[in-house]
Amino acid sequence: MTVEISVLGDIEMRIDGRPVDLGHMRRQFVFVGLLVDAGRLVTVDQLIDRVWGPRPPDGARSSLYSYVSRLRSALGAVDGITVDRRPGGYILKLDDDANSVIDLYRFREIAARARNSANGESALALFEEALRLWRADAFGSLDSTWVNELRERLRLERFRTELDRNDLLLRHGRQSELLGDLSDLAQRHPLDERLIGQLMLTLYREGRAAQALEHYERIRRMLSEAMGTDPGAELKELHRKILHADPALDAHDVSDASAPDPGARPAPAPPPLPMQLPPPPPLLAGRRREMAFLDDTQAPGALPVTVVCGLGGVGKTSLALRWAHDNLDRFPDGQLYVNLHGFAPSAPATKPQTAVHDFLTALGVDQQAVPSSAEARFGLYRSIVAHKRMLILLDNARDAEQVRPLIPGSASCTVVVTSRERLSGLLTTGGVRVVALDPLTSAEARQLLTARVGERRVAREPEAVDTIVAGCGRLPLALAITAAHAAGSPHLPLAELASELGEAESTLDALDTGDFDTSLRSVLDASYRALPEPAARLLGLLSAAPAQDMGVPAAAALAGLTRARTRQLLRTLGSAHLVEQPMPGRYQLHDLVRLHGRERTERDRSEEERREGLSALVDFFVRTAALGKHLLAPQEILSDAVVEPTGERARAYELTGEADALAWFTTERSLLPAVMRLAQDLGLHREVWRLAWDTHTFLRRWGDVDDFVGNRRVGLDAATRVEGPDAPTLRAMAHRGLATALIQADHRGEEPLEHLARAVAQFEESGDLLNQAHTHQIYTRFGLHIRDEEMALENAARSLELYRRVGNATWETSALNNLGWTLAQFGHYESARSHCQDALKASRDLGYKVGEAACLDSLGYIATRAGRHEEAVEHYHESLPVHRALRDSYEEANTLSGLAKAHLALGEPGPAREAWTQALKLYREQHRTEQALEIEERLRELR
């Protein structure tokens, strides 16, 4: 049985001369997608990308399985060719004999034999045989971005073979056979110096020296205009020899070169092309954007040096090697590789003069001829690689000084550097691009695990896989270590590995391989040791802090440094990819960096130093929250007016106005509970109470009632632990604060009353009239809440009387509005309207915006209840922008609901629906379920 598979032209398969149906175009894509990587795993995602491109249809995966199945059937009759299923993808396996049935592999094998042949005539015959296999462009009519790129690479492979054949013909003096072909090729490749050199030599030998010189001038001009360079040294030398009619250019008959002169000394063999790249990774998950970025290094005018940087273990070397192996055809003069050991746990950093010595040896320089001085070595290296199209991969660089001497002076070489540092010293000199690697996405991390562990095992334990992905921080190194543990214990449930990774104390132990170079702890240790001492100290303190992310002022307080110095150290940590900037001015640690940093700081720093820094961080938040509350609600009691003074560990952030305060609270909202827990752990109970008290105003406006109640419970717990003369007042205020939050969260049981009773008893005992008045205000709210008219009106009047006795105009105005609101709730509309109008005038006279908005809401409600709906709409429309300026979304939701009712009463369902829709969104965000359900029902009635 004779089998032939052709891709160098239309895609065909024949058995004993009869064509085999390989199916429609998509199935042919699958065949080519596996064939070009024969013997290597092609992942399912890679195949989908090769068949459908970057936007595959929804059913692509199912269709792919069908296409592969049919391809297997078509290849079933062919000995030595199989398609095997592997975890994560497929492999097209070829026996040695099978290579001969595929024209692409035959072409490569015959061309290689020609290059290695010592007999010129035999070599020429082999080159011609190889080139005859090309019937047309590869892959026939298949058309996609991936196929077109592959087709272009194979064109270049064919082109290089033609050039090798041409060199051989010229050495044999057979240039007359070349002239027509060379002219055609020069039209298609006008900037290829090797081709133009062959054409110039042919023209010269054919007596057309003037035309040869014209071709030189043409390429010189084109290179200058397109790339800003001159022709290479070899073409310049050929030009010089043509100008001087050098006899060395004349043709010589070497047809009998296979019978050498016994007395002649053999010419030294040319050094082999350096091909130093280590093997590529078996799988690269994700990284399409970064691969495309590296592809752009070959675009005209692209910068010749690319730095691939990122956290240790993020996959920089894997990316660089995968890209390099995928693009070998772009570098016909070879590849140089060196591991600079910049952050190697078990080896010292490689000196650049040592690296360049090894490069020179690889480039064919005799050991004895390598210069002894470093500068001479670098100069010789640059001279040799000048104008060569080479890849130089400098792996694991420590800093710019280690890399700079190894960068060639010629833009024809492509340099890729991997480093944990951004190598800012290189960036300042220009000519350098940077691609920073982040951890994988969750989907990419799952893909990597699936490929290494197997689809069935991953599918059986999806929750465990999610925990593993999170525990590994989506770092490729950590995922690879975990996958290796799983593969080594095939019967071990993934849940056990997940459990170990899910516990902070054992995470780094679970990612220990016992090998210095691959254990995550050792990798992170190397990054830590490379830091200057002040930066290492800051990293340790940031790791010990509870913050997910932190601003510069808070970090400065934690470290006890100026903000300018802290910002400088954060830049150092950022350059080493040990901190990230999720947004301008905010810094965060990767979870595994945090665990490692905490481990190191517990080992390297005293408990006293850690406690001092963390206490200063708490103090910073306490003082800034107090300032923020003063700016949001200057009429309210501040925590520092109640607690006993303490020594200042850190200064507050300089908030300059209400908008500043709102922005600070909004930014730090998710961090404040963590700081309160930290203060609890440190035994700073007074500071916990202060934070709970001073964040009250913002949290009430923010509207999330669960956060509001939780905050107040923490404050009360802290108050019960405080000792000293101020302790009874702090406890009473905490009881009242929790009652306020419970009422706002719609609690109707006895708990709010119990807290209010404790509060008022303490304030009456101490004779504190102002706090008594505040507490009666909350009693009023509760009376309204449970529809107890006597309780509500009695406490509203009592609080107004107490505020007048105290002489506080702002609080008196607020109490006057509350009394009006309370009267309206029980149908006393005229009296209510009079009180609220007086309160509105007083609020505006005082510039009291919170009071103004509350009075307008009250008047809107009263007008609605009294049937004056147009007046109600007007009041609510006046109130809304004030609430929004105050960012009081809690009251904004209530106002929108009132506005909707007024519109509906006027027979305006459209505006009513719009207002209720906005209110519903806020109620849901605030977890105010009862109000949300009520509005949902109203909206259904409007349909």
Describe the protein's architecture and organization.
With 943 residues, this protein is an alpha/beta fold. The longest helix is centred in the first third of the chain and has 27 residues, at 145-171. The radius of gyration is 39 Å and the shape is elongated.
Would you spell out the secondary-structure blueprint of this structure?
Elements lengths: L2 E4 L5 E4 L2 E2 L5 H11 L6 E2 H9 L7 H16 L5 E6 L2 E6 L8 H14 L3 H13 L12 H27 L7 H10 L4 H13 L3 H19 L5 H11 L44 H8 L9 E5 L6 H11 L8 E5 L12 H11 L11 H12 L5 E7 L2 H4 L10 E6 L4 H4 L4 E5 L5 H12 L1 H6 L1 H10 L4 H13 L5 H9 L4 H4 L9 H10 L3 H12 L4 E3 H8 L3 H13 L4 E4 L2 E3 L2 H14 L2 H26 L25 H11 L3 H10 L3 H10 L1 H7 L2 H17 L5 H18 L6 H16 L2 H17 L3 H18 L2 H17 L3 H18 L2 H17 L3 H17 L3 H17 L3 H17 L3 H14 L1
Parallel strand pairs: 7-10, 7-11, 8-9, 9-10
Antiparallel strand pairs: 1-2, 2-3, 4-6, 5-6, 12-14, 13-14
